[in-house]
Amino acid sequence: MENDKPLKIEFAPGAFDNFDGTQEELNEFMAEIHRMASTGELFENSRQIDLDELDPEADAEFIKFLADKNNNSERKLQ
After folding, report:
1. pLDDT in the model for residue 7
2. Domain range for residue 60?
3. Residue 52 gets which letter from DSSP?
4. What angle do CA 42, 43, 44 make, to 5 degrees?
5. Residue 7 to residues 21, 43, 70, 76: CA-CA distances in angstroms?
6. Per-residue model confidence as pLDDT tens digits over 4-36
7. Domain-embedded: residue 66
8. Phi, psi dihedrals of residue 6, rounded to the nearest 5°
9. Does 65 map to a domain?
10. How many Cα atoms sit within 13 Å of 1 on the Cβ side?
11. Total structural domains within the chain
């Protein structure tokens, strides 16, 4: 990635609430996201999605995630 400043990755509160794994697996997953961002691999392997083209049946989990995220936008951690 051609950028003078390293990319800062921030995970929103609740981003991994539905993660089904151990804390160690979550830590490894987050570390991998950070690594891929720093090498540029994250952007090289990403693709833009058009929300209007999602198939509601095939992408029900993603649509539920977006709805939950919208409903929890005021979420506060204590």
Report:
1. 82
2. 23-71
3. G
4. 95
5. 26, 11, 25, 25
6. 677 889 998 888 988 999 999 999 999 999 999
7. yes
8. -65, 145
9. yes
10. 16
11. 1
Distance of alpha carbon 16 from alpha carbon 30, whole angstroms: 10
- Is residue 12 in some structural domain? no
Take residue 35 and report the two structure tokens written for it: 């690594």
Residue 34 in domain? yes
DSSP assignment of 22-39: -HHHHHHHHHHHHHHHHH
Report the predicted TM-score, pTM, of the whole model to 2 decimal places. 0.59
23 with 16: CB under 8 angstroms? Answer: no
The pLDDT, as a whole number, for residue 36 is 93
pLDDT of residue 67: 75
Question: 73 or 1, which is more confident?
Answer: 73
Percentage of the chain with pLDDT > 70? 78
Of 76, 70, 5, 77, nearest to 37 by C-alpha is 5
